[in-house]
Amino acid sequence: MIDPVVATRGDVLATARTQLDLAKLVLCDVDGCLVESDALCAGAAAFVARHGERLRLVTNNSTMTAAALSAYLGTLGLDVPAARCFLAGEMALAYTRDHYPGLRVLAVATLAIRRQAEALGLHLTDARPDVVVLCNDPMLDIERLQQVITAAHCGVPVIVANPDRWRPDRAGTPLIETGTLLAALRAAVPRATVTIVGKPSLEMFRRALEGVSPTDAVMVGDNRETDVAGAERLGITAIHIGRSREAIAPQLLDLMER
Length: 258
What we know:
37% of the residues lie in helices and 19% in strands. The protein is of the alpha/beta class. It has two domains: 12-60 and 200-256, Rossmann fold (3-Layer(aba) Sandwich), CATH 3.40.50.1000; 89-196, 3-Layer(aba) Sandwich (Rossmann fold). The chain is elongated and about 60 Å long.
C-alpha cells in the first residue's frame, strides 16, 4: 500500500518520488502536466519514459479521441499508446451508449467526437433529441447552445464530458472548457438533469485503473477540483503539481530530480 503524501515541506518531494516508484500504476493528467500550448512541459519526456507501461493518461479532454491524442503526443516525442489514454469525451459517448441505447443523441462536440459517436452506434440528431452529450466544442454558436438549453428545459438528460470551466495556456491565459458551457446551461435551466462522467467522476478513475487497487496507484495532476479530489475520493494517492499555492511542485521535472 502506498503511504499518503505527508504535509511537511522538507521531504514532500522525496516522498512523492518514492510513491511514484512504488506504484503499480501511475495516472497522469495531460494539459498543464505533460503539455501546454502545444509544447512539452519541463520533465514530461523523462516522466513518460521512466514510468513506461505503468503510465495511464487520464484527461478531461473532450475534443479528441484516444488515437488522436496518442498520435499528437507522438509528434511531441511522447510514446503513449492509445490503449493507455482515457479521455472524457470518449467516456461520455460510451456512457451514453451504455445507458441510453438506441435513443436519439444531440452531440455538442467536435467533428472527431461526433464521428466517434457514429462509430459507437449512437444515433445523432439535430432535432428532438432524447439525450444530449455536451463536450467542449470550439465551434459552438448561440444557436447550438440554445438547442441544448431547450432540450434540457424539456427534461432531456444532459451527459457532460467534464466540469472544467477553463484550462491554462503556457502564459496562464484561461481557455474556455466544457464547464463554462455547463454553467451557461445551469444558469438558464437550474434544474437540468446533468450527469458528469469526466474527472472528478469516480468512473473515470475506475476505468483507468483496469483492475489495479486504488491503493496501488498514484495520480499526478494540476487541478485540485478534478485530479486530486477525484483520485482521493477513490483512495488513490494524489500528487498535486502546477501553479497553485497548494501544489507541491510547479512541474513534473521536480518529481524527476533527486
